[in-house]
Design a protein that fits this description.
By secondary structure, the protein is mainly α. The protein has one domain. The protein has five helices and no strands. It has helices at residues 3-46, 51-74, 82-85, 90-122, 139-165. The longest helix has 44 residues, at 3-46.
Length: 167
Amino acid sequence: MTLRRANRFLELLCEHLAKVIAVPAVVLFAVVVVMNGWEAAARYFFAASSIYTVEVSLVVASLVYFVGYARLLHDDEDVRMGYFVERLPPSIQRAIDVLNEGGALAFFGALCYGSWRYFTLTSGIPHVLFPFHQGYVSLPVLLGAGVCLLMSLSRLLRAIANLRQGG
């Protein structure tokens, strides 16, 4: 398989993945909002807090954050310093795009590695609240970072192709 075909396959995969993750990200975000609202109301009205609600909310929120960010990466809606970059010559803009995408790929690669290491390190330790091992709380981060890594790889290959083609 040529590099161009592999890149096209990766772009199609990311396109389908972005469509699939849009609805669950919104639904999970609504769950996080409801859980945090419930927790705030319980603290205010009943002076009671549920560590279970807080723990589950944090895990779901981490999944929402990374999966939502993967969608932003795909839709090219992530934060950029466009004001400054747009004033540079196009060839430098393309080189900066390659550097940015390479940095994003390195970040999400390190995050995947770190969350995998945390999972393997703590997978034998029982969770203090739930009937599973502590390492499982890192799986949403690993999943989300893996999707972001895939999106970043697709964007890096596209930026390299733009740099090579000059447009």
